[in-house]
Amino acid sequence: MIASLTGTVAHLGANYAILDVAGVGYRVELTPEHSLELRHGAECTIVTALIVREDAMTLFGFRSFAEREIFDQLTAISGVGPKSALNVLANLSPGELARAVETEDVAAFKPVPGVGPKTARLIMLQLKGKLVPAARPDRAATPSGADVDAGEVDFSAMEQVVTALVELGTKQPSAQAVVEAAAAELGAGADVPALLRASLQELGRAGSHRAGGRR
Q1: Is the overall model pTM greater than 0.70, yes or no?
Q2: Residue 122: exposure state from Cβ atoms within 10 A (0-12, 13-18, ≥19)
Q3: 175 dihedral zone (left: phi>0; alpha: psi -120 to 50; beta)
Q4: Check: CATH 1.10.150.20 for 65-127?
Q5: For the chain, which residues score pLDDT lower than 70?
Q6: Could you tell me the fold of the domain covering 4-62?
Q7: How many whole angstroms separate alpha carbon 8 and alpha carbon 23?
């Protein structure tokens, strides 16, 4: 399998690039936003997924392995083909997709070509709880029998959730702010899953407020 390509951008289309790798040109299907980030004649690395069908072999390109992992998860769902999966990534950032799945926001998929309400619900059902990076054991767990002060905030959990949101595409200051707001709402002792759910809801509310202010 071709997992990534490093070469010179020989040609750019609206939703694809041709990458010259040691004299061989590879056509890679991209989201329009990704294509706009590339420059003709520049060297770049594109993470790829090779999809083999009876009548074609197609390379799909991504900015990172994390983005390709989401693509793989989407294409593993019955009824979601590689083009539909790429359309999802073109219209929803990893963070937006995670929020839509966790909050069951069918309307978030409305702009995605080829993904109707039925497919959107199937995506949410299949990906529920799977789009959040695993919490990292950055700190040792509280020793057995040790009590957490009733008024003490679990900063380890907060740090893990901030890290997860940043990996999903949220900017660090925004991630920090929503996690602090969620922690204040939940109170001391909230675990990582609960804090993450509350933080995603905070992000969703913040996005709604911004959209309302632009009208």
Answers
A1: no
A2: middle
A3: alpha
A4: yes
A5: 132-156, 188-189, 206-215
A6: OB fold (Dihydrolipoamide Acetyltransferase, E2P) (2.40.50)
A7: 10
